[in-house]
C-alpha cells in the first residue's frame, strides 16, 4: 500500500516588500502557519510597523511564542542572514528581481533551501481594435498604471493600443489622469499618495527624464508638484517604442507609456518582448481573440476586459524573471510550505 502525505517543511523565512506590507504578510503567513510551519518574517526596512503590530496581535490571540518571529532590519544583514541560515528550511520572497537573485545565491551557498520568488514586472495592457473606449475601460487603464502610485509589481505600464482606437483612448486617459488628486493617503479626498522615500522619488523622476531624452512624447505630468512630500505627478508618455528604457525597465512609479500597433500579432509581439512575465490585461469584444491572447501571453495572470490580479482564491505569481514555480494565494500557496513524502507499506498476504 502506498501513502502520499504532505508535511510541513519546517521553519520558513518570509521576506516582504514595502509596497503592500500588511497584505503581503497575510499572503505568506496564513498558508505557512496553516501547514504547520513556524515563520521568521523580515518586513521591508521602510515598512516594519504593520508586521510588528500583527505579531503583537497574534501573541494576544494565543499563538505560542516562537511560531511567529519578526526580524526587522536591512536586506544586506537581516535578509542575507535568513537566506543563508542553515536552520531555515525554505524562503518565500516578494520584491525586486535583483534581490530575488541574491536569495537564490544564498540558498546555493548554504543548505540549498527552496526559494519561492514573486518579483518585478513590466506588464502590458493590450487594447485591440474592436474595444469600446468607455469610461469603464479608461478607468481600468488609469487604475492599472496609477493605483498605489504605480508602486505595484503587476502595474500595466505598457499600454499597447491599436491605431484605430488610440487617439480616442489617449485623449480620455489624459483627461482622467489630470483629475487624480495627490495628497495624504489618510485623507478620503486623496487619489494617490507619495513615493515611499525621497530616493525612490528621484529614481522615478530619473526615468521620466530618460523617457524625454530617448524621444517619447510627454503628454501630461512629468514632474513633482509644488510643496513638501515625495510626490510624482501622474505621467503619460505617447509614442513609446519597444526599445526605450521606459518600455523595458520596471519604474515602480506613476509613469504610463502608450505604444501604438496596427495588428493583433504586432501587439502580441511587443507584449511578449520583455524579460518579465507577471501580468497582462486584454480588452476586446471578441472572446475568441481574448482567449487566444491569454493562452499566448507568457505571464502568470491574464485579465480580460478589466484590470485585476484575481483574489485570495486564485494563485498569483510570475513567469520568467518575475518569479519561480511558487505561487501566493489559492491552494497552490500551500505548496511553498510543504514537502511530499511517499510511504510504502508491504502487506502480508492474507
Polypeptide structure, described:
The protein is an alpha/beta fold. It has two domains: 2-119 and 323-344, 3-Layer(aba) Sandwich (Aldehyde Dehydrogenase, Chain A, domain 1); 124-304, Aldehyde Dehydrogenase, Chain A, domain 2. 33% of the residues lie in helices and 20% in strands. It is built from ten helices and 14 strands. The chain has helices spanning 21-34, 49-60, 75-84, 97-108, 135-146, 163-177, 198-213, 245-248, 264-272, 287-296; strands at 2-8, 11-15, 38-42, 68-70, 90-94, 115-118, 124-127, 158-162, 217-220, 235-238, 255-261, 279-283, 301-304, 338-344. The strands form three sheets. The chain has a seven-stranded mixed sheet with strand order 9-10-11-8-7-12-13, sandwiched between helices. Strands 4-3-2-5-6 form a five-stranded parallel sheet, sandwiched between helices. A two-stranded antiparallel sheet has the order 1-14. Helix 10 links the parallel strand 12 and strand 13. Helix 5 crosses helix 6 (163-177). The mean pLDDT is 96.
In CATH terms, the superfamily of the largest domain is Aldehyde Dehydrogenase, Chain A, domain 2
Distance between the termini: 14 Å
CATH class of the largest domain: Alpha Beta
What fold name goes in the CATH topology slot of the largest domain? Aldehyde Dehydrogenase, Chain A, domain 2
CATH architecture of the largest domain: 3-Layer(aba) Sandwich
Quickly count the domains.
2
Topology order in helix (H) and strand (E) letters: EEHEHEHEHEEHEHHEEHEHEHEE
The geometry reads as globular
Q: Rg from C-alpha positions? A: 22 Å
Overall structural class, as computed from helix and strand content, comes to: alpha/beta
Low-confidence stretches: none
Biggest β-sheet, characterized? 7 strands, mixed
Mean pLDDT: 96
Amino acid at each position: 500500500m502506498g501513502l502520499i502525505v504532505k508535511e510541513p517543511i519546517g521553519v520558513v523565512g518570509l521576506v516582504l516588500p514595502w509596497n503592500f506590507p500588511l497584505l503581503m504578510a497575510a499572503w505568506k503567513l496564513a498558508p505557512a502557519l496553516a501547514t504547520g510551519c513556524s515563520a521568521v518574517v523580515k518586513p521591508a526596512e521602510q515598512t516594519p510597523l504593520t508586521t510588528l503590530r500583527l505579531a503583537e496581535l497574534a501573541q494576544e490571540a494565543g499563538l505560542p511564542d516562537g511560531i511567529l518571529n519578526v526580524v526587522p532590519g536591512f536586506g544586506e544583514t537581516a535578509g542575507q542572514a535568513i537566506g543563508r541560515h542553515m536552520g531555515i528550511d525554505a524562503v518565500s520572497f516578494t520584491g525586486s528581481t535583483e534581490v530575488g537573485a541574491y536569495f537564490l545565491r544564498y540558498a546555493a551557498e548554504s543548505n540549498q533551501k527552496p526559494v519561492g520568488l514573486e518579483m518585478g514586472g513590466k506588464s502590458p495592457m493590450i487594447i485591440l481594435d474592436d474595444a469600446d473606449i468607455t469610461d469603464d475601460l479608461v478607468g481600468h487603464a488609469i487604475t492599472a498604471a496609477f493605483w498605489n502610485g504605480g508602486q505595484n509589481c503587476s502595474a500595466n505600464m505598457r499600454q499597447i493600443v491599436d491605431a484605430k482606437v488610440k487617439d480616442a483612448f489617449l485623449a480620455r486617459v489624459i483627461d482622467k489622469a489630470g483629475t487624480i488628486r495627490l495628497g495624504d493617503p489618510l485623507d478620503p479626498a486623496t487619489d494617490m499618495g507619495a513615493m515611499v522615500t525621497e530616493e525612490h522619488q528621484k529614481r522615478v523622476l530619473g526615468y521620466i527624464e530618460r523617457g524625454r531624452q530617448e524621444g517619447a512624447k510627454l503628454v501630461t505630468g512629468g514632474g513633482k508638484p509644488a510643496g513638501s512630500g515625495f510626490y510624482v505627478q501622474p505621467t503619460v508618455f505617447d509614442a513609446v517604442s519597444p526599445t526605450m528604457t521606459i518600455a523595458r525597465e520596471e519604474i515602480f512609479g506613476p509613469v504610463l507609456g502608450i505604444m501604438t500597433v496596427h495588428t493583433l500579432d504586432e501587439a502580441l509581439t511587443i507584449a511578449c518582448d520583455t524579460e518579465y512575465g507577471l501580468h497582462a490585461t486584454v480588452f476586446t469584444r471578441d472572446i475568441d481573440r481574448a482567449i487566444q491572447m491569454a493562452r499566448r501571453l507568457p505571464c502568470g495572470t491574464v485579465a480580460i476586459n478589466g484590470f485585476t490580479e484575481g483574489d485570495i482564491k486564485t494563485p498569483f505569481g510570475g513567469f520568467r524573471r518575475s518569479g519561480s514555480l511558487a505561487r501566493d494565494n489559492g491552494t497552490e500557496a500551500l505548496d511553498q510550505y510543504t514537502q511530499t513524502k511517499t510511504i510504502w507499506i508491504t502487506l502480508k498476504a492474507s
